[in-house]
């Protein structure tokens, strides 16, 4: 893999990771503020609408953006830009029609969904969010097209703009509606409409990029892939052929995307009932489930979002090399993607394990859920690795393997919940989640080894980051344990925030330093980091620590 290809992938992955972090932080902020604005009742109505929308969005999008990204990357690698463009146009038209039908169907059936959700007043929020099903799938197809060209900036910018406009609409809309005395049902509807305004904003950003940069990408891509290894083959694809290829790839990806929220629903359907069977009251069981779902799982999902960004950049990169039958390059790209996922997720997992208690207090005022946070630290690592492995398999065309692994993991999760929750409470559910992701990751890894060969070695990828993480963990633990002896305590929550901030800061510095010392990152990889990469390379070169 050339240094240019390596840098392109790394820069794309990091740009998407930064966008994901910004979006997650905005999401965390609005959740707290919206609760204060519309109260528990309004929040309940809003939460009745959003899961229905999210499920229909997965169905209406049906994995098409990922499929578009894969096939665009393959055909551009072969120099067949015409087929890549046709794939995009067919997908955009199809998802626009499907999205429109889903939006109309949800709007007309809002009363039904409100009744089965338990509160007829939820109809307004469901109707308000329905139009987003028309806008978002089309926007996602445009993102997939640019990702196929390995241009990640359009996706990153549109994600941040979409989330910013969404959050602004949610908070301002809910406040204004309540200010004029319309009640919590309409305030929840105003908040739900944020998905529509955010989707429109993201779509407009993508439309701008499409108008401004599409020709440049297509022309540049044509020249980039005109090598001696590439013979331009312009075999015209019919619309039916394109649809068959897209559906073959998109359906298992979509089902895999549905399995992930299904895993969360396993806890929603089992944990509270199992706790009540063990003698807990309804209030206590619901409270414990809130500790698991509202604290531990939310913290686990941030590194998973970063891994998803890596997967988004990795899949078309692997697909491109695989289309050219470049086995060595394919293996190198998979290894690089795996290394990046490990480099991000391993220290995050250890950090959550060591600082679980102060993080819990800093964010949620008490330490009632910190045991689950510590346990799910391990799940953070295995879920991130599983996502990167799934992206590699999808890039190779093995789309059903990640789906099978997730299904096995989910079945195991259900069984372990019934076995462990009665004995260990919500910690048992956290253990079950960790085991399920571990099994899914192991299954994906073994399948990838069979497809690619022994060049994919987890031991080689792990030992240097593990060494750096061990040293980082020792320093972070020392900061945590010695904090009380400094006599700086003012307030338990402020104290927890400070020890978390200092521990994380020290950990990051030590971790990056040890990665360079161990030779786990190269100058090319460091320089791919936006803004800070080149200065870091200069600093380490002056120190004589990097070539």
Automatic annotation (TrEMBL):
Top-level taxon of the source organism: Bacteria
Residue stretches spanning the membrane: 12-32, 52-72, 92-116, 122-142, 163-182, 188-211, 246-264, 296-315, 336-355, 375-393, 405-424, 430-449, 461-480, 496-521
Presence of keyword Transmembrane: yes
Keywords from the UniProt entry: Cell membrane, Membrane, Transmembrane, Transmembrane helix
A Pfam family recorded for this sequence: Polysacc_synt
Keyword Methyltransferase in annotation: no
Location relative to the cell: Cell membrane
Coarse class of the protein's main subcellular location: membrane
Mode of membrane association: Multi-pass membrane protein
One Gene Ontology CC term in the entry: plasma membrane
PANTHER family registered for this protein in UniProt: LIPID II FLIPPASE MURJ, PST FAMILY PREDICTED COLANIC ACID TRANSPORTER
Protein name: Lipid II flippase MurJ
Biological source species: Sulfoacidibacillus ferrooxidans
Gene name linked to the record: murJ_1
